[in-house]
Structures are given as structure tokens and as C-alpha cells.
Amino acid sequence: MNKKILLVYAMLFFILGGCSNISEDKAKKIIVEEYSNQLGEATILSTEEKNDDYYIEWENKNDKSKGISKVSSNGEITLIELEIE
After folding, report:
1. Euclidean distance between CA atoms 76 and 31, whole angstroms
2. pLDDT the model gives residue 10
3. What was the pLDDT predicted at 60?
4. Which of 3, 35, 39, 54 keeps 20 to 30 A from 85, CA to CA?
5. Half-sphere exposure of 63 (CA within 13 A, CB side)
6. What distance in Å separates the CA atoms of residue 85 and residue 82, rounded to the nearest whole number?
7. What digits encode the pLDDT tens for the residues 41-69?
8. Pseudo-torsion of CA 56, 82, 39, 41, nearest 10°?
9. Which residues contact 83 (CB under 8 A, 6 or more apart)?
């Protein structure tokens, strides 16, 4: 009986642990919130999915910045490229 309960808990752990992927829309929203400021709102130029991560090209015309950021499956942002005029 104890082995069955342990097996059920282990299966639940792996199932719930593997469900940490975010949607493309959520990734875009995270980028817009991260790179928008009092000067203007960031807009999404393109999105590419690679290995459960989203590489998003964005631009904030008002503060003259643009770049590419990676959003991982758990929502963590990594700045890949940044250009400020």
C-alpha cells in the first residue's frame, strides 16, 4: 500500500513539475511589462520559440530602445541584445 501511495505522489510531482511552460501570449505580456516605462510602451516586433523558450524582439519607440529577450518556460527574462539610440 505504501508503495502505491509513493508512486502516486511521484507521478503527481513529475506531472505538475513538467507543466511549467508558459504561453506565447504570456511571454509577450511579460516583455511588454518589463520594457515599458513612463516614456512609452514596448511593442513586440517578432517572436520565435526554441526549446520551450521564447525569443522576442521588442521596441520602445518613445525611449528609443529595442532589443531581443529570451523568456524561459518559467517566465525568467534574459536580455540577449539591447540597442539604445
Report:
1. 10
2. 61
3. 95
4. 54
5. 18
6. 10
7. 999 999 999 998 999 999 999 989 999 99
8. 0
9. 65, 66, 67
- Mean pLDDT calculated for residue range 6-18: 59
CB atoms within 10 A of CB 77: 16
Beta carbons within 8 Å of 57's beta carbon, 6+ residues apart: 44, 45, 46, 47, 66, 67, 68
d(CA 14, CA 36): 36
Given the C-alpha cell 518613445, which residue does it identify?
62
> Closest by alpha carbon to 36, among 73, 15, 16, 65?
65
Helix-, strand-, coil-residue percentages of the chain, each rounded to 5: 35, 40, 30
Task: Return mean pLDDT, the chain.
Answer: 86
Question: Three-state DSSP class for 2?
Answer: helix
What does pTM read for this prediction?
Answer: 0.74
Q: Residue 1 corresponds to which amino acid?
A: M
